[in-house]
Amino acid sequence: MTPPPLGLYLHIPFCRQRCDFCAFYLEIHREDRAETFVQSLIHEIGLSAQQHVATGRPIQSVYFGGGTPTVLATTQLTAVLSEIRKQLTLASDCEITVEAHPSTISEQDLVQLLQSGVTRMSFGAESMEDGDLSRIGRPGAVHETVTAVTQARVAGFTNINLDVMYGLPGQSLVSWQRTLAHCLTLAPTHLSCYALTVEEDTRLASNIQRRRSPAPDEGLQIEMDEAAQRMLGDAGYERYEVSNYAKPEYACRHNLLYWTNGEYLGLGPSAQSYLDGTRFGNVADLAAYDTSLAANRLPIEDRTRLSEKEQLRDAVIFGLRLIRGIPSRHLHQHAANYGHAAVTTQLLAQQLIEEDGERSRLSARGRLLADTIAGQLY
Questions:
Q1: What is the end-to-end Cα distance of the chain in Å, rounded?
Q2: What is the pTM of this model?
Q3: Which of 139, 153, 257, 342 could form a disulfide with 262 if both were Cys (CB 3.0 to 4.6 A apart)?
Q4: C-alpha closest to that of 11 among 83, 98, 91
Q5: What is the domain extent for residue 190?
Q6: 66-104 burial code (b ≥16 CB/10 A, e <16)
Q7: 283 in a structural domain
């Protein structure tokens, strides 16, 4: 029997500074800390290959996320990728993505990444309006995004994603439409459009609490979501997940592993994994991560074996993020398993979940409340 494909996620925990909305685990980049981390990550790849991954099991996608992976030197990124190839088996058509802040990468860097086997670049644009960027504490300027995408294409990349956000402080429907229109002039193959969510213990949450910044307007976010679906659909992009649009054949394989309850191995501090019905996560502390690997131990902090009921629960919660939805029988079986029949009935009555024939999916408003709905169904 052919083993199922596997995804590989690498968390690069460095940024030059933290944006106001960001709740991810990260450290401010320092070259000495970065070099120690890279050596730890390379060691973790080898240990994980021995302990987690059966020989010959194909890796269908590799994803460098963060943080900002491209604050590392390109030689450091390519050294990590070289170790992955040495220790693991990559599928012949493996999708290899590197996230980048547009200001942290040059055309020469992009050429080197392409030559090392990277197939997909993902640029964190966030907005194509400089005022929006300033109001969320995101460093850099719009022209850097334009330059980065142009240089990526010149370097030879044919698969390029842009991350943008809507519902930002001070952002209007018209300015959001301008951001989308500007993105379309760059002709990316993929767009990730994220509704701003306010995470606890972020600068944005503090600013809202102190009334220095407005809270997201749900009604406006729905209008923005509808505008994105209309504009991107008219431009030939297919919406396949709550936040993701792609040209035909360019859906992100790595993201689809998450939404279809596929298996993946996560490396780096705070990275999460799902293998053989077990979820486990690395320690979210760079010093503890380095110390563990220096002692020849994997830096795993927690491990949970999922029952069949729990695996169905996760398949329902993640699968509802897909525009195609999930089989309705799975939703109702999960509701019966966990005593969520009343909650499910209420979500249907509120038209946050819609049923069409044999499938269930989130409605337009439900997509904005996807995380809240997931919490109710958990």
A1: 33
A2: 0.94
A3: 257
A4: 98
A5: 6-259
A6: bbbbbbbebebbbbbbebbeeebbbeeebbbbbbbbbbb
A7: no
